[in-house]
Amino acid sequence: MALVDNQAALNSVYNYFLTAYAPTNPVSRYDTHKKSELRSVYNSIRKQSKESPTYIIDTSSETKAFAVGVKEGARQFSNVISSLSSGEDNDVLSRRVASSTDDRIVSAKFIGEPSGSQDEISFSISVDRLAESQVNEGKFLPTDDRVGLEAGTYSFDIHVNGSDYEFQFGVAADDTNGNLQNKLESLINRSNIGVIADVIHENGRSALSIESTATGLMPGQNSLFRVSDESSSKNSGAIDYLGIRDMTQAPANAEFKLNGVERSAFSNTFTVDKQFEISLKDLSPVGESVTIGLKPDVESLSDNIHQLITGYNEFMNRTSEYSGSNVRTDTLMSDMWRTNIAYKSGLENMGITLSDDGKLDLDEETLKERLSSGDTGADVDTLKGFTSALMRKSNQISLDPMNYVQKTVVAYKNPGRSFSNPYVTSIYSGMMFNSYC
């Protein structure tokens, strides 16, 4: 019995941890690596830590926040640079960019591999119906009126993704409809089970609405979730009082024509031939379609440059947010500045300059004129070298963010007889802090 109770307690802890600290941004495909890449990272850590002294590191909250934040920022910036490369040789800034004749109807992202025939890749798509989620919208009740339920503990079940989740809550004698609806909205949203709750207000009345995060229906399905209290372990009657039992919007698949052929999808975002990631945004006018293809090399390079500068400036903005006596933000920003200055001349030819606050500015006219001139070989090579240098620097920062905090040397290693400590770079910046395990 004790073993069962302990297991239940552990499950509660893990569920709370995942709900409270799971990353808000989805992990990208650039966060997955081959064995050889992981081995290279580990060897780099070993080499770096083998001769480094032993330190005492400040344990203040500002130091931890800085280390985790900078590590995450560097990782995200590294992913931005990786997304601008394509091909087995990982040629930076070589990513091709998808084009859409109407982004308001259909947007596209090229996710394929480079090939010599890409200039001919194109297809048409028309949207007949967007994929929809399931919605159970409750009754509109007077927000400030007292709840029409007896005081006590109530519960109901939500069946979603093949699992049942029970929600228990208390109703006090002085609770209002608004208080109860807000309580359930918070309770459901914290659970992160595949549905989202929302309280809708209208002319002094309010209703609790529950919507699925998924869209579309598989064959044989008629709903994405169900709300019931027939098997409730506590008092029942709350879901009928709130009116959240019945479906008010049925889920539906997206329907579209691809090169004139009727197709369907569970979601409004899907891939075509493993080449394009398509996002349906609105219905097509009758008889019209959107053409998806690839932008010319010059336009693709321009888009890549814009995304590189945006990613760089976001990383610098994130870094500048941290301050304190135990962090060395200025040192980190100086390191980035030294990386930039080595490529100053070539960057300025492309309209890219370094501002006083350490961020990159882009002169659109200069870039446009330079790219249209057709004689950008040397400057593009400089830009690619700059991008590769930023990748190396971001990986270095991500590998050891503790290099930018105040440390007190305790002892130096014995030259020639030292040993590696591969975990020293993960202090305060390891997996538990950024929600990777």
How is this structure best summarized?
It is built from ten helices and 19 strands. The chain has 437 residues and is an alpha+beta fold.
Major sheet size, sense and barrel closure: 5 strands, antiparallel
Structural class: alpha+beta
Number of helices: 10
Shape: globular
Mean pLDDT: 82
Strand content: 15-25%
Domain count: the total is 3
Would you kindly provide a written description of the structure presented here, covering whatever features stand out?
The chain is of the alpha+beta class. The protein has three domains: 2-92 and 299-426, no CATH class; 98-131 and 253-294, no CATH class; 135-242, Immunoglobulin-like (Sandwich), CATH 2.60.40. Helices cover 35% and strands 22% of the residues. It has ten helices and 19 strands. The strands form six sheets. Strands 2-16-4-12-13 form a five-stranded antiparallel beta sheet, with no helix packed on it. Strands 5, 6, 9 and 10 form a four-stranded antiparallel beta sheet that branches. A three-stranded antiparallel beta sheet has the order 3-15-14, with no helix packed on it. Strand 9 and strand 10 (205-212) form a beta hairpin. Helix 3 (61-83) packs antiparallel against helix 6 and helix 3 packs antiparallel against helix 10 (377-399). The protein is globular and about 75 Å long. The model is unreliable at 1-5, 16-24 and 428-437 (pLDDT under 50).
Topology, element by element:
Elements: H1 2-21, H2 35-50, E1 54-57, H3 61-83, E2 98-100, E3 106-110, E4 123-129, E5 135-137, E6 141-142, E7 152-160, E8 163-171, H4 177-191, E9 195-202, E10 205-212, E11 225-228, H5 238-242, E12 254-258, E13 261-265, E14 269-272, E15 276-280, E16 290-294, H6 297-320, H7 329-341, H8 344-349, E17 352-354, E18 360-362, H9 364-373, H10 377-399, E19 407-411
Antiparallel strand pairs: 1-19, 2-16, 3-15, 4-12, 4-16, 5-10, 6-10, 7-8, 7-11, 9-10, 12-13, 14-15, 17-18
Helix pairs in contact: 3-6, 3-10
